[in-house]
Amino acid sequence: MGKITNEELLKKISEKFEQHITVVGEPYGLLTIETDRDNIISLLSYLKNDTVLQFIFLTDITGIHYPAQENPIGVIYHLHSLVNNVRIRIKVFLPAADYHIPTASTVWEGANWMERETYDFFGVTFDGHPDLRRILNVDDMTVFPMRKEYPLEDPNRVDKKDYFFGR
Amino acid sequence: MSDIQLVEAPPGVEGAGFFATSLDKVIGLARSNSLWPLPFATSCCGIEFMATMASHYDLSRFGAERLSFSPRQADLLMVMGTISKKMGPVLRQVYLQMAEPRWVMAVGACASSGGIFDTYSVLQGIDEVIPVDVYVPGCPPRPEAIIDGFIGIQKLVQTESLRRRNTPEYQKLLASYGIQ
Known about the structure:
The complex is a heterodimer of chains A (167) and B (180). In chain A, the strands form two sheets. A five-stranded mixed β-sheet of chain A has the order 1-2-5-4-3. Chain A has a two-stranded parallel sheet with strand order 6-7. Chain A contains three helices and seven strands. Helix content of chain A is 20%, strand content 25%. Chain B is of the alpha/beta class and 180 residues long. Helices cover 34% and strands 13% of the residues of chain B. Chain B is globular, with a radius of gyration of 17 Å.
């Protein structure tokens, strides 16, 4: 059990970011909040630099795509306070066709590659990122494969059609 | 007494003190029993290949105990495992660095066709980037299957003309891959 409970954590965040956050829930005890892209960096900086909270470790940045939602693409930050043994998850959803968000590499250097990966797979542009290019996929790839708008399988091949397998 | 077996002589004319056959057959015999494989192992088929090279299955019985980890000296490129699209140019580069005569063996479902990885990041068979002589099916193939594929390569080597690279069909094949 962490030294800070989720209630205390939420209270401390709400003091500063009352209007800008919404609480999504606490699945499996992991406090999950949502904010917007104008406040994400100040929220991350606050969580990292606050002398009590000390969320000094950025576990991961990743993306998610809900095609039916009004703001389809989300960027998700996982923070870990090693001192207090408590974690938090922060989500930011971006409006369609405008996938821009400020870079978190100004707060953590380690965000650099995580943001490149998120760009690679979801096409989210991180404004101010020092070197935003693909990291895992081939450089000449034109799509963002984890978005749910591209076929998973290679559309060019003909030898794996369903009728070869009686489907 | 030793039970070492020698390869059979190719068909030819034999008489007292001489034996005549064509140079193609002699060279093919020599090449097929001294192939230097370059293992390009990326996943589980590579583990099966290790078993094939080890004492129980012992690929050196077929004259291939000398693995060449430099493509410059290798005769046979053995591609074992999933090749991602990002690995494709690397594999092609390795193939281009090999000197003629050169053969390629695709071991396992992934190298032959992409296997179960029918997805955006995986090359759907190495024959998209380099020509392949022998395909070995299996996921992964057992060492016996790899040896069978290797014997298939040996048969190719024995029956090919001395300079396969000069034949028009071979040049056409390479040209279709954009290789000079």
